[in-house]
Amino acid sequence: MFAKVKPQVFIDTLTLELSSPERKAIKAVLKDEGGAVCRHLESEASSHRSLIWSGLNDLPYGVYTIELKQGENEMKMQIVKRV
Q1: DSSP 15-34
Q2: What is the CB neighbour count within 10 angstroms for residue 23?
Q3: Of 23, 17, 33, the residue nearest 68 (C-alpha)
Q4: Which domain of life is it from (predicted)?
Q5: Domains along the chain with CATH numbers
Q6: What is the pLDDT along the chain (83 residues), one digit of tens a residue?
């Protein structure tokens, strides 16, 4: 696992904590339960170990899948949007 997503239950902001020392761009895709892409984020490499993804307050509450990719590393995890 090259990143942690905090919190697992969110309202309007997610924090991606990167554990990989690689300075490659990170791509994140947020999908709803039906698999439709709701949001995407791309960030260039930097020396920062965390990335804040804000502006998610207009998403309906429910279960989402976040897909992260950095170089050859990929991961998926489920998170919950609450009201």
Answers
A1: EEEE-------EEEEEE-TT
A2: 12
A3: 17
A4: Bacteria
A5: 3-81 (2.60.40.1930)
A6: 788 999 999 999 999 988 866 678 889 999 999 999 999 999 886 667 788 999 999 999 999 999 999 888 999 999 999 98
The maximal CA–CA distance of the chain, rounded, in angstroms, is: 35
Whether the Cβ atoms of residue 69 and residue 45 lie closer than 8 Å to each other: no
- The whole-model pTM stands at 0.86
72 conformational bin, left if phi > 0, alpha if psi -120 to 50, beta if neither: alpha
The answer to whether the peptide bond before residue 60 is cis (omega within 30 degrees of 0) is no
3-state secondary structure of 68: strand
